[in-house]
Design goal:
238 residues; Methane Monooxygenase Hydroxylase, Chain G, domain 1; elongated; transmembrane; Golgi SNAP receptor complex member 1; Golgi_SNAP_su1; transport
């Protein structure tokens, strides 16, 4: 009997939570559409609305169903712990744990949906008050607002001009630094070229000396080979 009551309450809670979630979704959509259509509306958007009353009613009903289901689970726990059902204790504990998990899931879903709804309503209230302040400010001081707007635009133009001047100066400074660094590189390259040009005459003289020694060694080697050849011929004919 307790399990039947628990299942019935769980089915009712499931249907209520689905309707509750749809209500929150439709509430957000309707507020967005109304804000787009009535952007200059000075009356509060949320006070006394039918959706707010429906939300409060459904929240109370769901809380009552959660309380009843909690009571049923407590009764099932008492029955499980009684001394007359030792053989079925494991199965009953499994069933009880299943119903407790379902209750926990429904409770978590309810609190999550309720928190989202309250956050949307608070945001809409804040936006409505801001819009009313803006409208009252615009309607109360039209000429002063126009002058203030012109001053603000002029101030923004001056700030943009200052920013452009600062960017131009920074670009010029960066160009100057790059040219200075390039001039230093060119100077170092020029000094290296001068050093190599100064070293080239010594290198040329060294190469000429090496060539002269090679020629002298070639002549000496040729003379030695010729003398040896003549001596071999003379020895062969004698």
């Amino acid at each position: 009997d307790l399990r039947k009551q628990a299942r019935q309450l769980e089915n009712e809670l499931d249907l209520k939570l689905v309707s509750f979630s749809k209500l929150c979704t439709s509430y957000s959509s309707s507020r967005d559409g109304r804000r787009d259509r009535y952007s200059s509306d000075t009356t509060p958007l949320l006070n006394g609305s039918s959706q707010d009353r429906m939300f409060e009613t459904m929240a109370v009903e769901i809380e009552q169903l959660l309380g009843k289901l909690t009571g049923i689970n407590d009764k099932m726990a008492e029955y499980t712990n009684s001394a007359g059902v030792p053989s079925l204790n494991a199965a009953l504990m499994h069933t009880l744990q299943r119903h407790r998990d379902i209750l926990q899931d429904y409770t978590h879903e309810f609190h999550k949906t309720k928190a989202n709804f309250l956050a949307i309503r608070e945001r809409e209230n804040l936006l409505g008050s801001v819009r009313k302040d803006i409208e009252s400010y615009k309607s109360g001081s039209g000429v002063n607002n126009r002058r203030t707007e012109l001053f603000l635009k002029e101030h923004e133009h001056l700030r943009n001009s200052d920013r452009l001047i600062e960017e131009t100066i920074s670009i010029a400074m960066a160009t100057k630094e790059n040219m200075t660094s390039q001039r230093g590189v060119l100077k170092s390259i020029q000094s290296k070229m001068n050093t190599l040009a100064n070293r080239f005459p010594a290198v040329n003289s060294l190469i000429q000396r090496i060539n002269l020694r090679k020629r002298r060694d070639s002549l000496i080697l040729g003379g030695v080979i010729g003398v040896c050849t003549i001596l071999l011929l003379l020895y062969a004919f004698h």
